Amino acid sequence: MHCPFCRHPDSRVVDSRTTDDGAAIRRRRQCPECNRRFTTVETAALMVIKRSGVTEPFSRDKVISGVRKACQGRPVTEDALAQLGQRVEEAVRLTGSAELSTHDVGLAILGPLKELDVVAYLRFASVYQAYESLEDFEAAIAELRGDRPPAADPDAEAPVPAPAAR
After folding, report:
1. How far is the C-alpha of 51 from the C-alpha of 53, rounded, in Å?
2. What's the pLDDT band for 159 if we cut at 50, 70, 90?
3. Predicted confidence band of residue 133 (pLDDT cuts 50, 70, 90)
């Protein structure tokens, strides 16, 4: 590690601590040449393998950008998108793998997105899972309806409770 002050090519670690719930290590360093101290933060690089075989660093912003397109016109706030991005990053880091495929990242997005907005979920899933026919959409909608209780009809009369047994 080069000293940021005098550019000496070596430094001594004075203190190390984990930060961000163990996702990073904060190191306090001292230069043996100028004796000045500085801090470094080390994080594990998480790489994504694209379909073309190219690898690139995982980007939470890229996840949010992709989900934002699916949420266009939906009542989803930027804060909700940021939380979704954080949940996805935590999920992919918890796999313990240094490299993930785009397929794995997509799977990590689908769960939190379904909880956030089912229409956005359906839009994202239609592209991610390459729906090719109406039957694909119908199957996905049927699955969503099975996951959620049917909405109450506001015009229906409330059921009359049965008299209590004595």
Report:
1. 5
2. very low
3. confident
In tens, the pLDDT along 108-130 reads 999 999 999 999 999 998 887 77
Cα-Cα end-to-end distance for the chain: 81
Residue type, 51: R
**By the 8 A CB rule, do 64 and 84 touch?**
yes
Q: Which two tokens stand for residue 158?
A: 């409330």
Q: Return the DSSP state at 156.
A: S
Q: Which ranges of the chain would DSSP assign to H, the alpha helix?
A: 60-70, 78-94, 102-116, 118-128, 134-147
Quote the CA–CA distance of 93 and 38 in Å, as a whole number.
28
Q: Is 75 exposed, middle or buried (0-12, 13-18, 19+ CB in 10 A)?
A: exposed
Q: What is the pTM of this model?
A: 0.63
